[in-house]
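All the exercises in this workshop are built on plain-text protein records. A record pairs a protein's sequence with a compact description of its fold. Read left to right, the backbone structure tokens trace the chain's path through space. Once this layout is familiar, the rest of the handout is easier to follow. Here is such a record, shown just as it appears in the course material:
>
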Amino acid sequence: MISKQAKGGEPPPGQEQEQFAVIRMYQAREQIYPREIKGRFASLRWLCVFLTQLVFYGLPWVNWNGRQAVLFDLATRKFYLFGLVLWPQDFIWLAALLIICAFGLFLFTAVAGRVWCGYACPQTVYTEIFMWIERRIEGTRSARMRLDRQPWSFEKLWRKSAKHLAWGAVALWTGVSFVGYFSPMRALLPELAAFAFGPWEIFWILFYGFATYGNAGWMREQVCKYMCPYARFQSAMFDRDSLIVTYDAQRGEPRMPQARSAGKDGAGDCIDCTMCVQVCPTGIDIRQGLQYMCIGCAACVDACDSVMDKIKRPHGLIRYSTENAIEQGLPASAIRRRLLRPRILIYSAILAAVVALFSASLWVRMPVKLDVIRDRGSMGREVEEGIIENVYRLQVINTDERSHRYRITVSGIAGLTVAPSDVIEVAATQTLSVPVRVRAPHGAGESGSNKIHFELQAEDNPALHVSEKAVFIVPRR
């Protein structure tokens, strides 16, 4: 926005002196240089980084029954999850899985705030990896700040170039791993080496790699502050008994440097060292209270505890606690008791019920599906010796990873037979379309529509069977 402001001083007679001032509608970003910190929460965060990336990078290389264990094959519309093969008709389980994830997020947030953001969110994980690379190449926080203030030189050029090349390599491999979930990884890499990959594969590798490079390398805290919707609606899942990273103002205030607070009665434990601000990946001051920009990573807890060790004060000036516990001075036992409050119990009950239903439905899932399509162009017709014939097309889907021979039987009218054959073989994870003729003897059934049932029974597995309803038309006599 541009506005006119009169400049100080008297303008010449008959003239009006004006100045155009720029008023920014958005706050300019200030570069954040998080300090590296060690501690129990930093170790936990790196454990989460290791485990999540072990799963993400490693799963495309795991084999199961001679194929990739986890593969979303969009071309054939099959989704392989270890021993489970899902088809488009099975998307109900995908919906159930998303519901489980949603209620799990609600539950974890109600219990421990933004614990997902602080430890397992991809933005946090890749930012941690990129910052580790940055520290190894450019040095400590003060060294990075000093390097950025210096004019361009050979040292600055090679350090910046090496950092961005390392970031680009990690981002590119992340893109390759992502595409490896949709194109078999063992076939994808030779294609990449020979530059024989398809246009969609290279598009998604570059797109996902660029997103990783941009979000974790350049945008970082801006994603958490401005782009992530979770930061905006998380407060709806908090209450005053939710565990959050918080500063104990009753113990810390009035804050003052240690040299000034020495020997003074009433001085708080906070020595205003700003270490909690220096280690924060989003650059906030936790001492100002709960803020939506806080991702709950607890880096400030590790930093403050290390300072308390140096000045011989107890840990916990900044800690995981609740608003009620801070205000009322509740002990840890009271905090644990208040975790079992109605909101937590309701979330837990719903989550347990959905997980139980999801597991039970997968357990009883039949790995064969049958669709019966009656030939609309050929109604019930009378053939030789007064036999009534209807024509159908059976769509048989074998979701098992073994081929099976199925016997076709039809019930509902006495004497029904199937032609040309009542035995079919369906290969593993394949669909077979089978035209069949169903015949009824003369005089069987009633004129018009008659309800019948097609049944498939695997010859090698008595428990593998499926039934589907259909209509048999008998011409009017």
About this structure: The chain has two domains: 29-365, 368-474. Confidence is low (pLDDT under 50) at residues 1-8. Residues 85 and 95 are 16 Å apart (CA to CA). The radius of gyration is 34 Å.
